Amino acid sequence: MRNSTLQGLSSSIARWIALIAYLLFLMFPLYWMAVTAFKDNSVLFKMPPEWIPVHPVITHFTKLLSDGAFVIFYKNSLLVSIGTTLLTLLVATLAGYGFSRFHFKFKEFAMFSILSTQMLPVISLLIALYSIYNSYGLLNTRLGLTVALTTASLPFSIWMIKVFFDGIPLSLEEAAKIDGVSRFGILFRIVLPLSKPGVFAVGIYTFILSWDDFLYSLTLINKDELRTLNPGIAIRYMGEVSYDWANIMTICLTSTVPIVLLFLFFQKYMVSGLTAGSVKE
Fold it and tell me: Rounded to 5, what percent of the chain is helix, strand, coil?
């Protein structure tokens, strides 16, 4: 009995050590990005390196926030990401509800056809998309970029939110119909409130996808006053020969703030949304 207890304890300790080591491995790049933002460029290449800044500086942050171009890039990213999230939620909600509640010919084929568009690499779509946008005057517009990012996020969003709608009993909708509630009233007053984790999960997923976008933004926007954060960083702050690494790490650290805030406030919705449908009762 004692030997089995010791073996169980040793196994538990080993698992915890492995888990902590793996967590440190994953978190170290983020930690190094954060501490580099508070270092002067003169100490970045010291050997041995400074694991904790001896003389932390905040001049990189003050310089960055006073840079008008960075503020413009940040604002554009926020506008495009929020617009993409709202538009995706609207379209995904209507499409997901239709696929969940209505039965029609070739329904399964239509659903898999939508999802299959995710298999196409973005780079294979950009030439055709650029040509279409050029014909309709959508190049160098936030609206055009928002529409492009919405189409990229819709397939997975529709499938995700449909799973939540499938889990809501039809009896609730039938009772509402008896009370005279319209179809849209049922959707927005009954179904959506009960699907709040799914809505938040889709919203967070879409916001992260649009915030991290690089290829669409780089291809469809070529005016500095309309650039989003990622292509703006690559074009303005990264040179061909040398890099201001402390400044770049400051930019990267600042750009993670919206994503970190999203996960802090809506983590439980994200987890429940991504795990929906994984277990059948």
Answer: 75, 0, 20
